[in-house]
């Protein structure tokens, strides 16, 4: 049986590969379940500092499996219960990514469309091969990408998001970087190395500090200005009292490499 989400650990970096190239790594029911299982396992794995998410074959992810969705219409309610459950399950997986303790980097190539674009937008960081195309193009078949819109509109300016959603037009990697959907671009042959380098940079930091910082990053974004400062100040106090943070500060003062207990 084909493993739909392959996990390969390289030191402190876990590589997750969506492995359904024949369907352009569509987010089928089985794919969503497999990805959820992998994310749940990583949430408990303190040996992993960074997660890289990529797709097998010629594309990152083409979104939902439309053929499978059409089969859902065969029920007496014409698919209402199935569709509600599908979009709830997909939303749960998308929300698991920012909630994961480790930073998650999308490594995109080929296309990332509809829920596949949503997946890129849900990741904390993204690197894409030059020429990669991104779109929330459901409107072209009469299905507005309302759930992908949630992640997209939290990554790019509103007018950019609305244009993509209402026209169904794609943007390339250069434009995606300009508007903030991705962080970096690389030639296709250098994509893996560029993504790995970013991952290694983050993995080289104090993991506990990155974990507490990631949580605070998303928590403060939902607060008003004064509450955000109150919350992050409390986080920094906790962070400052750690043994490894004390060691890191002292090592900087003494111009030496820190001797972190974590490592």
TrEMBL record:
Name of the protein in its database record: Enoyl-CoA hydratase domain-containing protein 3, mitochondrial
InterPro entries given in the database record: ClpP/crotonase-like_dom_sf (IPR029045), Enoyl-CoA_hydra/iso (IPR001753), Enoyl-CoA_hydra_C (IPR014748), Mitochondrial_ECH-domain (IPR052377)
TM spans (from-to): none
Pfam families linked to this entry: ECH_1
Protein family: Belongs to the enoyl-CoA hydratase/isomerase family.
Keywords for this protein: Fatty acid metabolism, Lipid metabolism, Transit peptide
One of the protein's GO biological processes: fatty acid metabolic process
Species of provenance: Thioclava dalianensis
